[in-house]
Structure formats: structure tokens, C-alpha cells
Amino acid sequence: MQIIEKITYERVVDLVFNAKKFVYLSLPSIDIETADVLIEKLNENPIEIKVLIDNSEETIRNGYGDIDGIEKLFKNNLEIYQSEGNLISFLIADDIGYFIFPQSKIFENEPKGNNAFRLDPISMHIIINHFFENNNNNYSDDELPATINRSYDYFKTTLKECINISDDVLPFDKKEFSIIKEHLSINPPLPPNLKRQITTYTSKIQFIDFKFNGGNLEKKIINLPETAIPISSIELKKLLKTKINMFNDVNENPGFIKLNDLKRQVENLRKEYLIPITCRPGKNIIQIPEKNNFINKLKTIKEEIKNLDEYLYSSLEEEMLNTKDLLRAELNIFFSNVNNETPDLKKLANEETKEKKIKEIIDKIIYSIKFPEVKSILDKIIISEVYYDLTWNDFSDDKLLKEFKEKNILKDDINSIIELKNAYDTKKI
């Protein structure tokens, strides 16, 4: 019989699903994966299942379990109890039980080595009665000797098997320790309490890159190739530069009015939820408690952007045609002036022929301009957002901490963060 073991998630699943009478589980808190196993077992085979946790925010912030796991137990009517600060973790499924030594998921998701000690029948009985007083696990005078005998067999077997030291235990390797020491001196680890503290702070705020691209259509400029202008004329180049906006009458156009309304919505969303960080260009801070509201409002705006086609498609086509007509009219005025005639125009005496030639020159200039496809313009009107968790490097940045303080970011924690940073910096010296 193996007494000291490595209990993995798969082993927990096996123990729970093989139980015929009861399952008792005590952990700092419960994660959603373990909750799912217990719920599935209860639905498949209704046995007695009781769960004990430390019902505290700190436990969850330190990487043990999550709120969703606890809520799932309640919604499915599992019996759940609490014991403040309890560090005794165990799993007992019928006649098999273990003391379990769980680890925070901040550090590892799965154990690398042994993390469980198998219990004898009497110890299991004592633990169940201590933590779950309303159970039906009291032994009668007739049953107690049998339980003691089972415990006797347990100890008799285990004592024989545990004469030799475990294969997992080896002499201390000084060479390996020297390598570890060297690596840690080059890149010192964050103390566990510091790592947990950082997790606490990062559960409150995040960085976000938030961009709205392609919305400034009124500023779009037509790229006119130099070779398109048939004469070297400073006046003509000035003229074209003043008339070269791709879209002009944007204030009166219904499609552009809709786009401008969306731009205002985006700006209002930015002002309501995001705090720009000047020492990190392009970065903003979002408060985690407000993140869901931000996401929901952003989703609505994104849906409206998807529907911009019906408002803007015909507007953009119309504006491009208007811009071409405006350019034609300005170019016609320019080339009709005798002082601006090209050498070819000067050779023509017939006015009708000259007008046709001017039209040809203007067409050549217009056709050389690469007006974009309307669909490609609409496809570039997008909102993008990327979230980043803060790291210790962020919390050790004096400029960032100063800006946090000025903008009341983490106002209840900022002094603790600064003290923590200073203490860590002092420790490194």
C-alpha cells in the first residue's frame, strides 16, 4: 500500500467517481474544475457530498479556488461549509482518504512531487466527526473493534513497506545547488508574499491599448502622382493641395453624421472608463470592477460599426464623385487661362479642339489618382482593444507609481505598493 503519493486532478476524479457512500472534501477554496466533478457525481449517483472551505477573499486572491467554483456548488445544492483560516486539507471517499497539501495556482497548476498522505480508518473517522458534526458516521460498539482492526492492518502493512527510504529522496546535490544559487543571484526571485501581493493588485486594474482606426475620413488626402501634372506649375500644385481632400461636405452628409456620432460614443467610453498613462504612450488603465460594463458598451458600439455600410457606402461613393467633379472644375478653370496653357494647347487655334484637349488633360490627371475602393475604406473603420496584466516591473517603475498617485489609481493600495517596492529594493542591495 502506497502511503505517500502524488494526488493529481485525474486521481481526484477517480476517487470521487468510484465513491458509493460519501465524499468529504476540505480545501482552502474550490476551483471550477473540482466543482464540476462533484456536481457531475451528484447528478449521476446521489451520495453524501460535503465540502469545507475557508470562505475568504484573501484565499481566492492567493490562487486557491475561484468564485465561480463556489457559486456552482450553491446552484447545484451541494452541502458547503466554511472554517476560517483552516489549513487542514483532505479528501475522503468511502474507505480511502488522504491528507492533501494543495498549492496555489499562482505558482503551479499541477504538483511536481508528493502532495498527499494516506489516512488510516480511525483517522478518517476522527476527521469526519470533527469537521462535519451532522454526519451519520458514528460507530456503534460493535463496529468499533472492526475499525480498529482495519487500522491495525493498515499500520502493519505500511510499517513493513516503509522500512527503506523512498526512491524520491536523494542525497543533497551541492553542485546543482551551486548552479541554482548562481542563477538566482543573476535573476533574484520575487518573494512569495510579494508575488501574492502583485496578484492582489492586478486583480484590481489592467493596462489596455484602445484604438479607433479609420474614422477620420474628413482628413483623408488624395495622393496625386507628380507625373500626372503635365506642366511644372507652382500655382497648379497649390491649387490641387487645397482641393485634394477625398471627402469635403462631410458635416451635412447623413452617413458622416452617423460616423461622427459613433466617434463621440467611443470618446465618451474612453473618458468614462479609461485613464490614459502619459509615461506609457498608448496605454490606459481600466478598473477591473468596471471592465464588464466597458466591454458591454464597447460591444454595442462595435455592432453599430458593423452596420455602417448601410449609412456610409452610398455617402462615400457620392462624395468621391463630387470630389472628382470639383477637381475637374478647378482644373478646367486653371487650364482655360491662357497663362497656364501647356505647349500642346498653345499650338491649337480652334477653341473647340482646345476644349477637347483640356478635357483630355484633365481626364488623364483624374484617372491617375488612385481613389480607394469604398469597401476597403469601410473595412478599415475598426476598434481594437488589447488587455495586459501589470507585472512587478510595472510596480517597480517610479514614474508609473507617481502617475498612479497623481491620478488616484489604486489609491487605497499605492502607499503599500511603494513601501513594498522600497523594501524589495533595499533587500536586493
> In total, how many domains does the architecture comprise?
3
Category from helices, strands and their pairing: alpha+beta
Ends apart, CA distance between termini: 51 Å
* Radius of gyration over C-alpha positions, nearest whole angstrom: 37 Å
Count the E strands. 11
Indicate the topology:
Elements: E1 4-5, H1 9-18, E2 22-26, H2 32-44, E3 48-53, H3 57-61, H4 67-75, E4 79-82, E5 89-93, E6 96-100, E7 116-118, H5 121-131, H6 143-161, H7 174-186, H8 192-202, E8 205-213, H9 234-242, H10 254-273, E9 274-276, E10 283-287, H11 288-306, H12 308-336, H13 343-346, H14 351-368, H15 374-379, E11 382-388, H16 392-395, H17 398-406, H18 414-428
What would you note in describing this structure?
- This protein starts with a strand and ends with a helix.
- The strands form two sheets. Strands 1-7-6-5-2-3-4 form a seven-stranded mixed beta sheet, sandwiched between helices. The protein has a four-stranded antiparallel beta sheet with strand order 9-10-8-11.
- A hairpin with a 6-residue loop joins strand 9 and strand 10.
- The mean pLDDT is 79.
- Helix 10 runs antiparallel to helix 11.
- The chain folds into three domains: 158 residues, Endonuclease, Chain A (2-Layer Sandwich); 57 residues, no CATH class; 181 residues, no CATH class.
- The protein is elongated, with a radius of gyration of 37 Å.
- With 429 residues, the chain is α+β, with helices and mostly antiparallel strands.
- The protein is built from 18 helices and eleven strands.
- 52% of the residues lie in helices and 13% in strands.
